[in-house]
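During the second half of the funding period, the structural biology subgroup turned its attention to how the target accommodates small molecules. The most pressing case was NAP, which had performed well in the primary screen but for which no bound structure existed. We therefore specified the complex as follows and requested a full 3D prediction, including the ligand pose.
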Amino acid sequence: MKTILITGAGTGMGRATAQTLSQHKDVSLVLMGRRKDKLDAVLAELNHQENHVAVSVDIGNRTSFRKGLTSISPEERDIVALFANAGIGGENAYGDDDRWDEILRTNLNGTYISIMETLPYLKASKQAFKHILMTSSCLARFGVPNYTAYCTSKTGLLGLTRSLAVELASDKILVNSLCPGWVETEMAQQGIQLLADRMGQDYQTTYDQQMGFVPLERMSLPQEVGNLVDFLFSGKQNSISGQGIDINNGSWMQ
Ligand SMILES: NC(=O)c1ccc[n+]([C@@H]2O[C@H](COP(=O)([O-])OP(=O)(O)OC[C@H]3O[C@@H](n4cnc5c(N)ncnc54)[C@H](OP(=O)(O)O)[C@@H]3O)[C@@H](O)[C@H]2O)c1
């Protein structure tokens, strides 16, 4: 049985990815996030439910992550992949209430902690190829105003991806990041609502305006991200490493 860790598994893309990966009967998923009730709800809807576990962790806290990981007896498992997907969004502004530290602590430090705590077990796996996949963002590709912390954190993940891809190549660990554009999740809905409030208009009008900037005029579905992760981890490819993989309906092109 192969074990795959997913952070941010209680909602959005993490949840959709868990649903997709649970279709494989030889896969055991470890669902990680802070809210145990959300993780348990996802666990209840998975295929081969008895194979999977839900563990509450705060990725921004090394002790919390390690405690959660230790609780699932990682040394007795064959951990073949980590989907380091958890993150927080929203704006920040310099001053007393700046969210800079909170966003960097979660998105950048938290992803680093998730990877480094999992790494010894990935290295121990005898699988021919192992995987670390982070969730960056199209906001690592272009800037938007008032998102300095978010853009910085997600751009930082691309540096982490490239450095680790080289460092871990001899361990046959493929390291990549996803760079999604808008994906229909709670985080995107909050982002649209924030813009709507700022412009003093309703959600739907703002949604339509934002989709007007996207060539395919749509948000991705979380399941599409799940399908992409499934492919990257499937063994159908063992060549993609060190990449930021764009899934954005054409909103940014290389
Ligand atoms: N939706 C988009 O349009 C979009 C676009 C580009 C990139 N992204 C990125 O995609 C990833 C997934 O986001 P999503 O869209 O699926 O939004 P989401 O539904 O808000 O998911 C984020 C998940 O991260 C978890 N999380 C946040 N802080 C955490 C912490 N300190 N420790 C452990 N877990 C934590 C949350 O669970 P708890 O609150 O229970 O901990 C939640 O399940 C994020 O990294 C986000 O930045 C999203």
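Two results from this model are relevant to the next phase. The radius of gyration is 18 Å. The beta strands are 2-7, 27-33, 53-56, 78-84, 130-135, 173-180, 244-247.
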